[in-house]
Amino acid sequence: MAMGRGGDVRRKRELAVEFIRQIRAMERDKLHALILGEAGEELAQFFLAYATDLMEREPDRAVENASSLLLIGYLIRAFEVEQSAPAVEIRPAFLQ
After folding, report:
1. Parent domain of 32
2. pLDDT in tens, 30-66
């Protein structure tokens, strides 16, 4: 089984597929509230502006750019989680 930096890649894919299913079935107002609650208006507007600029500059690469935007969002979230994790103090074994 493939392992990425953050763990089991297959499990991550399964979680992503399940999340996409939930998003597709979600009512528009609930999705909007989720976006505002997790990202906030400012970050949502940033992504909209970035995506609009990217799509306008390279309309022939819309599918590739959409995929890149999804991955960028995922990587930003991974970075947030990493930054919020408490630092682990590493001490040499002979000091313990």
Report:
1. 1-38
2. 999 999 998 899 989 998 998 999 889 999 998 898 8
Whether 91 is covered by a domain: the verdict is: no
Cβ neighbour number for residue 63 with a 10 Å cutoff: 8
DSSP-derived 3-state class of residue 6 = coil
Looking at the structure, tell me whether residues 10 and 44 fall in a common domain.
Answer: no
Same domain, 78 and 45: yes
Cα 83 to its chain centre, rounded Å, is 14
Where are the extended beta strands (E) located within the chain?
A: 3-4, 7-8
State the pTM of this model: 0.62
